[in-house]
Design a protein that fits this description.
The chain is mainly alpha-helical. It has a domain of 50 residues: Cytochrome c-like domain (Cytochrome Bc1 Complex, Chain D, domain 2), CATH 1.10.760. Helix content is 59%, strand content 0%. The chain contains five helices and no strands. It starts with a helix and ends with a helix. The model has no long low-confidence stretch (mean pLDDT 83). Bound molecules: heme C.
């Protein structure tokens, strides 16, 4: 109960500040590492942004991330990367 309340208090402000699109990332990129979907835990803003920009340029052979990355402008991707990488 106390832990739940604390978790709510700690997570609510961060969620309220999520830039457009950032809340959808965790639907696939959960807290646990998965064979098909790489974990973003512990990744820096710059490394996440670099991956997103590469997907947007069509690099690699992504299954879904190219379409997701192309749905956002570079400033939007930067805001999303910073939010996803927050401690
Ligand atoms: C539909 C599920 C899905 C959603 C939603 C999704 N991703 Fe992904 N993500 C993947 C998969 C699968 C990969 C592996 C590359 C591929 O196949 O497209 C990936 C790869 C990545 C990588 C590269 C990780 C690495 O280790 O190289 C980054 C960074 C990333 N996603 C960020 C995001 C961000 C930020 C969002 C939210 C805007 C997001 N993803 C939303 C499924 C998803």
């Amino acid at each position: 109960m106390l832990a739940t309340t604390l978790t709510l208090l700690l997570t609510l402000p961060a969620q309220a500040a999520a830039p457009p699109g950032a809340a959808t990332c965790s639907g696939c990129h959960g807290p646990r590492a998965d064979a098909a979907i790489p974990s973003l835990a512990g990744r820096s803003t710059e490394s996440i942004l670099a991956a997103l920009l590469a997907y947007r340029r069509g690099e690699g052979s992504p299954t879904v991330m190219d379409r997701i990355a192309r749905g956002f402008s570079e400033p939007e991707l930067r805001a999303i990367a910073a939010w996803v990488a927050r401690p």
